[in-house]
Design the sequence.
């Protein structure tokens, strides 16, 4: 069975209390699920509740990894509002970089994203680099790419799997990336349409990762 990544992107959702409940519920579901060694499940909460993730994973011995949703392009220092790789590595193994919402609302540029990738790599944090089409430049050193067509994000209208396969294939051909994930309106019902594609190695899940039950079904069906 090929390796797969299932990423939960919580975006700007959840309080401390809600995050604790999610992990508690997941601990019940995951213990029922049994073995899924070939799947890396990476949960990406907002920065201020990463500690809840860390504590809950330890407390319940959960087979989950933690990711961030962003990383500072700067080192530790006088950069008010930024969260450095030096701090993040105490919490996470991965970080999302260049999500279309960060590009759009936080005005992150390609040049800045390349610096974020370099910073993540220098702290041993694996970037999950998001692109929304096959032409986008992918910085050096990126091994995991999440392909998320803009119209599919949060719309309930996932891309046709045939189209996804063709784009994922072409991204892999043009760049030396190891894994391509699909993101955009992934559900427990449609996840397998993507994970069974030869060029797709997992999914990035937004809305359907916010509740433990549907997210568990996604892991199960992937
Ligand atoms: P969605 O979001 O699953 O809610 O469409 C995916 C994403 O933006 O990462």
Sequence:
């Amino acid at each position: 069975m090929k390796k797969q990544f299932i990423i939960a992107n919580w975006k700007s959702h959840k309080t401390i209390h809600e995050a604790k409940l999610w992990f508690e519920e997941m601990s019940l579901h995951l213990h029922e699920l049994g073995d899924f060694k070939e799947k890396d499940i990476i949960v990406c909460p907002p920065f201020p509740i990463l500690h809840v993730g860390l504590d809950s994973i330890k407390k319940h011995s959960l087979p989950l990894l933690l990711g961030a949703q962003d990383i500072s392009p700067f080192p530790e220092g006088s950069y008010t509002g930024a969260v450095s790789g030096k701090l993040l590595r105490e919490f996470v193994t991965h970080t999302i970089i260049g999500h279309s919402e960060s590009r759009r609302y936080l005005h992150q540029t390609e040049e800045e994203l390349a610096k974020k990738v370099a910073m993540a790599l220098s702290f041993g944090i694996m970037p999950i680099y998001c692109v929304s089409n096959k032409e986008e430049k992918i910085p050096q050193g990126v091994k995991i790419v999440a392909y998320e067509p803009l119209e599919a994000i949060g719309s309930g209208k996932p891309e046709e799997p045939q189209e996804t396969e063709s784009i994922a294939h072409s991204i892999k051909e043009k760049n030396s990336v190891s894994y391509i994930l699909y993101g955009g309106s992934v559900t427990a019902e449609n996840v397998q349409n993507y994970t069974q594609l030869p060029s797709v190695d997992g999914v990035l899940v937004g809305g359907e990762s916010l509740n433990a039950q549907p997210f568990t079904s996604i892991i199960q069906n992937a």
